[in-house]
Amino acid sequence: MNDEKSTALTIASALLQINAIKLNVKNPYTWVSGIKSPIYCDNRRTLSYPDIRNMIADGIVTCIRREFPDCDVIAGVATGAIAHGMLVADRMNKPFIYVRSSAKEHGLANRIEGNISPGSAVVVVEDLVSTGKSSLNAVKALKQAGCNVLGMVAIFSYEMPEANDGMKQENCPLYTLSNFSALIRQAQDEKIIASDEVEVLSAWRKNPEKYYYDKI
């Protein structure tokens, strides 16, 4: 097993152990977007566990140094990735900024917080990539500000085609420490889910917006 696959399984296991990821195929969770999902991921929980948050920060740093050696600035996506992005920027001794989902309605009405110069080579840190819409909005905001967005590194991805296609169209390489495939494998190994539940999870990912609604 190569290092990347091993890391993906290790982080998936850690997220399951601290309930940062929960699985429930019978009583799905509802995302803000309205999608009903058998998986709920809240990577902010990792911040309460020093060993896990350090493992994640170190993993992101390793990925950035390997894939984006010309990085000048680390950008976190508000709000979930602000803390993780700051930990990464501190380890790398790089400037840090973060991107809001929309501009503030008061003060300077900033969309991007922190000091950024046009032409800066930026790597975006994200805690979670699902459909990719919010992540791509952050990338577009940085480009509009004149940044050279090298790519994105996230803690976890659902590996949805919509997100992967969007990143390719935006010419933003996406790397993740762990992902849906690793999660399912680890959950099976730890006997958290049964084989019939694996089938549900796989079917849901193929059509997440309609899967549970089609069952009603």
Your description of this structure?
There is one protein chain. With 216 residues, the chain is an alpha/beta fold. The protein has helices spanning 3-17, 50-67, 82-92, 133-144, 161-169, 180-189, 195-206, 211-215; strands at 21-23, 29-30, 36-37, 39-41, 73-77, 96-99, 112-113, 121-129, 148-157, 174-179. It has a single domain (3-206), classed as Rossmann fold. The longest helix has 18 residues, at 50-67. The strands form 3 sheets. A 6-stranded mixed β-sheet has the order 7-6-5-8-9-10, sandwiched between helices. It has a two-stranded antiparallel sheet with strand order 1-4. Strands 2-3 form a two-stranded antiparallel ribbon. Helix 5 (161-169) links the parallel strand 9 (148-157) and strand 10 (174-179). The model has no long low-confidence stretch (mean pLDDT 93).
Question: Can you summarize the main beta sheet?
Answer: 6 strands, mixed
What's the total count of β strands?
10
Strand order of the largest sheet: 7-6-5-8-9-10
Tell me the CATH architecture: 3-Layer(aba) Sandwich
Mean pLDDT: 93
Keywords:
single chain, 216 residues, alpha/beta, Rossmann fold, two-stranded antiparallel ribbon, 10 strands
